[in-house]
Amino acid sequence: MLRKYSNSRSFLDNFKLGTLTAFTAGMVNVSALVLFFSFASNVTGHYAILAEEIANGKWFQVLVVFSWIFLFFFGSFIANSIVINGNKKRVFLNHAIPIILEIMCFLAVGVYGHYFYSETLMETEFLVAILLFSMGLQNGLTASISNFVIKTTHLTGLTTDLAIHLSLLTKAEYRNKPEVVQKFKLLLGIAVAYTSGGILAGSIINYYEFKVFFYVAFFMIFILLYDYSKIYLTGKTIPRRNNKKEIQYSKDKSFQEG
């Protein structure tokens, strides 16, 4: 899942990465909604809140919401920067670092929430900020290494793409094209995984509360260990990447579709 980059990735690589990380994002988003009454895996709604706070002249809240949006942006920036500027001989490590940072964010929220959280507004805003940063890391990583095919922390664009590909499949000429069928399966898998993660989190959050973030962190650790075992225990090689050839924003079809 993590050891391959851009055009060297197969459909199965993207499907496993997309569904597993989307499941995590769904858990995080529902957990944040129940515990903090705020979404943590996307910033679409926060842009609307930002505009409202500016219109009302509530400048401190403007600063808070803007910092949330910026942290999601910054997390994505950090993840992509690590991927494209890292050592080309250590592709897995470059791809693992953003996930390690994400795990640290989950553990920080879990520990603070479980042992120290007193439900003040400042604490809530701070913990939401950490979760938004973690989701930015995840979205930036998955989009970067999949050449913009996978985005797992929000479903707005994905739902549109899913509808478009479903409409394409109503014509026989597109049903015979593997790339169209595979893209539909990938999008559907991500949507189902995200929803499933949310359902699981909603089912257990009232009982486990902040401990849910420990389980999310362990799940991400499992993803790392799974890929680590594929590389170092089975002896599989890691394809080297060529940034100049593989990142072509204007020409790549997957970027145009995503």
Structure description:
The protein is mainly α and 258 residues long. It has one domain (10-237): Up-down Bundle (Growth Hormone, Chain: A). The chain has helices at 11-36, 44-56, 59-85, 91-115, 121-145, 156-168, 172-175, 178-208, 212-232, 243-246, 253-257.
Notable characteristics:
single chain; 258 residues; mainly alpha; Growth Hormone, Chain: A; globular; disordered C terminus
What's the helix and strand layout?
Layout: H1 11-36, H2 44-56, H3 59-85, H4 91-115, H5 121-145, H6 156-168, H7 172-175, H8 178-208, H9 212-232, H10 243-246, H11 253-257
Name the helicity range. Answer: over 70%
What's the assembly state of these chains? single chain
End-to-end distance, in Å?
Answer: 19 Å
Low-confidence stretches: 237-258
Q: What is the 3D form? A: globular
Q: How many DSSP H or I helices?
A: 11
CATH architecture: Up-down Bundle
Biggest beta sheet attributes: none
Count of domain modules: 1
Strand content: under 5%
Structural class by secondary-structure content: mainly alpha
According to CATH, what is the class? Mainly Alpha
Q: What Rg do the Cα atoms give?
A: 19 Å
Mean pLDDT: 87
CATH topology type = Growth Hormone, Chain: A
Number of strands: 0
User: What pattern of helices and strands is seen along the backbone?
Assistant: HHHHHHHHHHH
